[in-house]
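Morning - nicotinamide-adenine-dinucleotide inputs below, output right after.
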Amino acid sequence: MLDGKTALVTGSTSGIGLGVALRLAAQGARIVLNGFGDVDSARARVHALGVEVGYHGADMSRPGEIESLMAYAANEFGGVDVLVNNAGIQHVASVEDFPVERWDAIIAINLSAAFHTTRLALPRMKQRDWGRVINIASTHGLVASAQKAAYVAAKHGIVGLTKVVALECATTGVTANAICPGWVLTPLVQKQADALAAKDGIDDAEAKRRLLADKQPSLRFTTTEQVGDLAVFLCSPAADNVRGVAWAVDGGWTAQ
Ligand code: NAD
């Protein structure tokens, strides 16, 4: 379905970003990876699906490096047809204790980066009259939790950005939508389970059970593959007129 298209997935060396990249690659898309850590194994897993794969190590908190990433995608792959804004970080603290530097980093990576990639990707998408902007927001783009001020602010912000982009592109073949996962078991969530286990003196399984029981009625983690398959649907012709939605995949979290 995505043969001949190029997908850029930010923060795709692990977790949800890698899961989305693998599903888009399985549909034939060329993939531009981004992120830190184990780049080689992410690249090998995408390559094994028989598609071209590139990588750019832009730090998504830096607008200048994001411009280099987009120039790389344009020069090496002819531009971006599917833009998945996924890179994200978390920090847990009350507002009055929230480190200012962590606030700035979360807003830069989880929100402003999506503005920069989108503004740079849209001209070509509009010119071709086809494009997909898929923002990996969160349940925290729809509702809040205590201790997550920067994350909740950034995620509500990216849901708003998604709606504006959808409206500005509404008469074109370019759509913009957000995916709002609840708990997905990735390194980002494992850190929160580790912190809970240490704080309450419980084991890993009990910490995960408590995280789920607190928020997610299905008591099951959403998988990275499920998020990837939702992104594939949003790229399909069936989703041509799905515009500006914030689609929860959260085991019932926001139904409560
Ligand atoms: P993760 O920690 O597994 O992956 C984050 C990715 O972002 C990694 O590839 C990392 O290298 C990259 N990254 C971090 N900082 C970066 C930077 N400055 N520049 C470039 N890349 C950077 O986390 P994840 O859980 O897969 O999270 C991915 C996205 O999904 C985030 O936006 C997160 O908010 C969102 N999300 C996660 C969950 C969950 O339960 N895991 C739920 C809802 C939304």
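Note: The longest strand covers residues 174-181.

O.
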